[in-house]
Design brief:
The protein is mainly α. The chain has a single domain, classed as Ferritin (Up-down Bundle). The chain is built from eight helices and two strands; from the N terminus they run E-H-H-E-H-H-H-H-H-H. It has a two-stranded parallel sheet. The chain is globular.
Length: 252
């Protein structure tokens, strides 16, 4: 059964599904503010990021696997895309694990969050899940990764830049197949539009509860317009996303 963490600053609880299993090496937290959150100038900032990103990629793999298990009657094309995504996410886990260990960290050194899994698997339909995971969370990744590539190249860190380049290419593909699937299903099943809307509204509330406004406002990177177009968003959707991000940054 879903649990209902209560935000001390919220008037109503936000429902989450149970979290995925982690072994004793991992410390799992509920909210971003409970994590270490080292500042960018801290010498271990990158190691903490690699560790948390590795766990988020595990969440991505777990979500894709759950979609395959929970929606076995979905059409073969989207199931194949989800299976490829699971393979990509497993490769991302290994990429971040390798670079983290190589640069001096270890599994379980920093707390992790499993909010993506707990939000997504609490949705009972495939279009809603793909709207949250791929069209929303991974689309944000398309935005966030591009400046990290530029920073790594500027520092002469080719290994890290190449890692992010591979991640970005995969994320664009994940967003694109979800956009195509949601558009196709919505043409034949108008109720899917409502399912997507409800899922995104729910995810927005859950994300706010987990991250808090401070963390959300701290994400000041721009929209990756070219990446979003390649990922299957329409020009109008990209313009709207850019305007929304610019307005939020201006108010921060």
């Amino acid at each position: 059964m879903p649990t209902n963490p209560q935000d001390v600053n919220s008037e109503k609880p936000i429902s989450f599904a149970p979290g995925p299993t982690r072994d004793s090496r991992f410390v799992v937290k509920e909210r971003w503010s409970d994590c270490l959150n080292l500042p960018p100038e801290h010498p271990d900032h990158d190691l903490e990021f690699f560790h948390r990103q590795m766990n988020e990629e595990i969440n991505g793999l777990e979500n894709a696997a759950r979609n395959l298990a929970d929606f076995q009657d979905a059409d073969w094309g989207v199931r194949m895309s989800i299976a490829r995504q699971a393979s990509d996410e497993a490769r991302h886990v290994e990429m971040f694990r390798r670079i983290m260990v190589k640069r001096g960290s270890r599994l379980g050194r920093y707390p992790v969050l499993n909010f993506q899994y707990r939000i997504i698997t609490n949705v009972d339909n495939l279009v809603g899940r793909l709207a949250i995971q791929n069209r929303s969370f991974e689309a944000e990744g398309v935005d966030a990764v591009e400046p990290e590539i530029e920073k790594a190249r500027a520092k002469g860190d080719a290994e890290l830049a190449d890692l992010f380049e591979m991640q970005l290419a995969d994320e664009i593909g994940h967003v694109r197949f979800a956009n195509e699937y949601i558009a196709r299903v919505s043409k034949t099943d108008p109720m899917s539009v409502m399912r997507v809307g409800r899922a995104l509204n729910y995810a927005s509330q859950g994300f706010l509860w987990v991250m808090g406004q401070k963390a959300i406002d701290g994400a000041t990177y721009a929209r990756n317009e070219r990446g979003r177009l390649e990922a299957g968003f329409s020009p109008e959707e990209v313009r709207s996303a850019v305007a929304e991000r610019n307005a939020r940054n201006a108010g921060s």
